Amino acid sequence: MTFAASFFSLFFLAAGAYAGSLLFFLLKSGRTAWALLICGFACHSISLLARGWHFGIFLPLNMMSEQYFLPWCLAAATLAARRITLSRDAAPTLLAPLCALMALAVFLPANAIPPAPQTATVFAPLFFCSEVIAHALFLAAGWLAALFLASRTAHASFNAWAVWGFIVFSLAQVTGAAWSWLGWSLPFHWSERHLLSAALWCFYCAYLHLHFSQRWSERGKAWFAIAGAVLVFASSYYHSFVMLGVNHG
């Protein structure tokens, strides 16, 4: 079996395990739900390793394609939230967006990235890794903010998720600039990709400043966090949807 075949087999197993976990959570069978989540996370992790060997040599960038790495980060966030006091009750609900992202990954597959001189630096995988982790934290913050507005959670725990997302996303901007300088002799490109990333950083910078204004209640911040999650989702998947339209046009 090739590495590509191993990746897809294990990825589909992970998707099934995540779906089963959500089902058992809805059926109030917590232990089974968490066990399936852990099994799915293990299969997902191994599938990403197999994808890294797609071309017969290990390329970390192929592990971090957003369609596949973003659900993995959200699964890790779900497991981590179980240990966080303020997010513990809401942690299982993250299985819903996790399953939605897995479904998108199945129907919007990403091509593997071949070796290239510009990617032969540690800053390339560091950039993609930190960026996708930040996106997962932003999406989790938006989801938890929606639950807060719906009175499903008593604590505004989404704030902490958004703050950590901003910290990791700031790291992505630094590593991305270093990679851009080493690969193209420019710290920033005036391209759609880079401008979207910069706009998203400015958005969450504004979000952090809301904490210094008494006019913004927790509900107002929750709406802001939801808007940020929508922006993250759009910036992460717009290209995949455009390509899907082109291929079926």
Please tell me about this protein's structure.
By secondary structure, this protein is mostly helical. The chain has a domain at 116-247. Helix content is 73%, strand content 0%. The protein has 9 helices and no strands. The protein has helices at residues 3-26, 30-52, 60-63, 66-81, 95-107, 123-149, 158-184, 192-209, 218-247. The longest helix has 30 residues, at 218-247. The protein is flat. The model has no long low-confidence stretch (mean pLDDT 88).
Work out the radius of gyration: 18 Å
Number of helix segments?
A: 9
The quaternary state of the protein chains shown equals: single chain
Strand proportion: under 5%
User: How far do the termini sit from each other?
Assistant: 34 Å
Shape summary = flat
The pLDDT mean sits at 88
Instruction: Please estimate the helix content.
Output: over 70%
Number of beta-strand segments: 0
